[in-house]
Structure formats: C-alpha cells, structure tokens
Design a protein that fits this description.
Layout lengths: L1 E3 L33 E3 L7 E3 L5 E3 L9 H6 L8 H5 L5 E2 L5 H25 L2 E2 L6 E4 L3 H10 L5 E6 L4 E6 L14 E2 L5 E6 L5 H12 L5 E5 L7 H5 L1 H4 L4 E8 L5 H6 L6 E5 L11 H8 L6 E3 L5 H12 L1
Parallel strand pairs: 5-7, 6-10, 11-12, 11-13, 13-14, 14-15
Antiparallel strand pairs: 1-2, 3-4, 7-9, 8-9
Helix pairs in contact: 3-4, 5-10
C-alpha cells in the first residue's frame, strides 16, 4: 500500500513507525512535514499521537529516549576546536536550520565554552575573548520566537539582535552564582579597534552583523553609518574616527554602485575590508554590481568578501588587527 511517512533516517529493514520529529532534529509543530513526501511501504504505519511535548511519536514508543548529544549527532558534527586552529570559533548559519536544531547546537556550544572557562579558571590561564563568542547568524525574528518557545538553554543565556538577525549566547560560566559578570577571569585583549562604516541605512543589517560579531568577540567597535558617496562630506567628517591611532582595520558596507570602500581606501593607512550588500535597483543584480566595483577598486589595500557577508568580513578584520 502507498502510505505517507517521514522521509530519511528510517532503514528499510526497520519497522515503519512515525518516529518522533524532534529526534530527527526537525520541528515538531510542523505537522505538514508528514505529508511532504511519499514512499512505498510494505505495511501500514503504526498509529501516531501528539504527545504533551508536541512530539509526534508512534504508540508505545518511549518519548525522548535519546540524550541531547545523541539527537545532536544525527544532524550536526560541531567543530569545538576551531578557535584553536583558526582564531575564531565555529558560528551557526541559521538560515535553513529548524528552531530545535538551532537550540541544540547553541546549547552544545555554550557547554563547550563553560568547560573551557572552568579549565582556564582552575589553571589561572588567560581566556581568549573570541573563544567565548557563541553566534548564530541569519536568524529571523519568527525563528527566534520558536527557539524561545522550546525553553531556556541549559548552559547559557540567549539574546536576540533584531537588526543584525543574530542570536548570541552568553555562557553560564561567564557569570557568578548571582548572575553578575565574573571578575576573577583573565581575558586576552587587543590594542586595536575596528571601524564599521556603511553607505546607507539600508546597509545596516549587514553592517550590524559585522559590528556585533566583533564586539561579541571582545573587539572595540566604532560605528560610522549613513556616509555614502552621494554626500561625500559625510565620510570626510568621519575622518577623525577613521584615522584614530587605535584603529587597526576599517570595514565598509555598501550596495548600489559600491564606491565607498575605494574612497575610504584612499583616506586611511590600515586594511579596508569591503562588504558588498544586495541593496540596489534593477541591474545592481542583488549586489553583484557592488561586488564587481569593489573587486576593481583602484585603491590599494582593499579586500572584498562575498555579498552581504558581514560575519566573514568581521572575522577577516579580526585577523588583520592580530
């Protein structure tokens, strides 16, 4: 008989149960997933019911029988040691992930940071500020609300930054028993700061993704917004900030013609990271025209990342100032 079942994860030799969606790292409340695919089954499925935790499971099957780590391993293999190799921890690209997947991944990351801080505290080591950054990018407000409905994290506290669409987590080990910031921890510091500039207000989501990634990593950030080339006097007015001796790198976000990074590159003596944005009319082609302009910059010392990649630009800037 032809019977609707949830696709994948079910071996042909296993009984065809309607397995718990949460155990597959999928969103329990989205009943429509059950009807999304069709396969041929040799026998009808056992009946399913909606449990008190909103998990669809087969009758008689033990709910939530898997540990969080077992559930997580079904869809993610986290790279907790990346910060030691590359200088910045793994971040979560939230687009395309379900709320339950995001919740589990962030909690695992927070647990890793807690263990790292506890080990550093016991040995009086200096904690790398960037290693405490727990960031999920491209998180829409509606997705954050669903993550919040799942419940608080066990190992950290979530905070949503709506303009940047970033969901950050502060690991529990960074606070004392009273919830205040610990004063006994020693963090690595950098003497250089970063300026984040953007041409127009519509570039703010990308600029804020970059600025927050830096600040959450312990880097001092100066923001210079709405200073595009259509009003060239605005970037000239910001020159004292751009040329401050403490500045080690400048990030410039721009859409439309993408000319601002070239202008800034001719005014400062530090690396300039150009971030094209998908802002513009018609033949701006979703940021490709700005990307091509920046790649063809006649100002030396300007590097370019992908369209709308504020996070990538921030990590590049962080490596520049080190």
């Amino acid at each position: 008989t032809y019977t609707n079942v949830i696709p994948s994860y079910t071996s042909p030799i296993m009984p065809l149960y309607r397995r718990s969606l949460c155990q597959l790292g999928r969103e329990c409340s989205r009943r429509s997933l059950i009807q999304s695919r069709f396969v041929v089954a040799r026998k009808p499925l056992l009946p399913f019911r909606l449990c008190q935790h909103r998990h669809i499971s087969c009758s008689g099957t033990k709910l939530n029988s898997q540990s969080p780590d077992e559930i997580l391993s079904a869809f993610a293999n986290l790279d907790h040691s990346r910060v030691k190799r590359a200088g910045f921890p793994e971040a979560v690209f939230g687009q395309g992930k379900t709320p339950s997947q995001i919740h589990l991944i962030l909690d695992s990351m927070a647990n890793n940071v807690n263990e790292m801080i506890d080990a550093a505290s016991e040995s009086d080591d200096i904690v790398n500020s960037a290693s405490t950054a727990i960031i999920a990018t491209r998180i829409d407000k509606s997705v954050y609300d669903e993550v919040l409905e799942i419940g608080p994290l066990k190992n950290g506290i979530m905070q949503y930054h709506e303009t940047a669409k970033i969901l950050s987590v502060r690991a529990n080990a960074l606070n004392d028993a009273n919830g205040n910031e610990r004063t006994d921890l020693q963090f690595s510091t950098t003497q250089k700061s970063v300026v984040v500039a953007c041409a127009g207000t519509t570039d703010l989501p990308v600029a804020e993704e970059a600025a927050l990634t830096l600040s959450l990593s312990g880097i001092q950030v100066t923001r210079v917004y709405d200073c595009g080339v259509a009003g060239l006097h605005r970037i000239l007015t910001a020159l004292p900030k751009l040329r401050d001796p403490s500045v080690g790198c400048v990030l410039v976000c721009a859409g439309m013609d993408g000319a601002l990074p070239s202008v800034v590159g001719g005014l400062v003596d530090v690396p300039v990271v150009a971030i094209p944005t998908s802002v513009g009319y018609g033949v701006s082609l979703g940021g490709i025209s700005a990307l091509l302009t920046m790649l063809n910059s006649c100002s030396p010392g300007v590097g370019v990342v992908n369209v709308d990649n504020g996070f990538g630009g921030a990590v590049w800037a962080m490596k520049c100032i080190r």
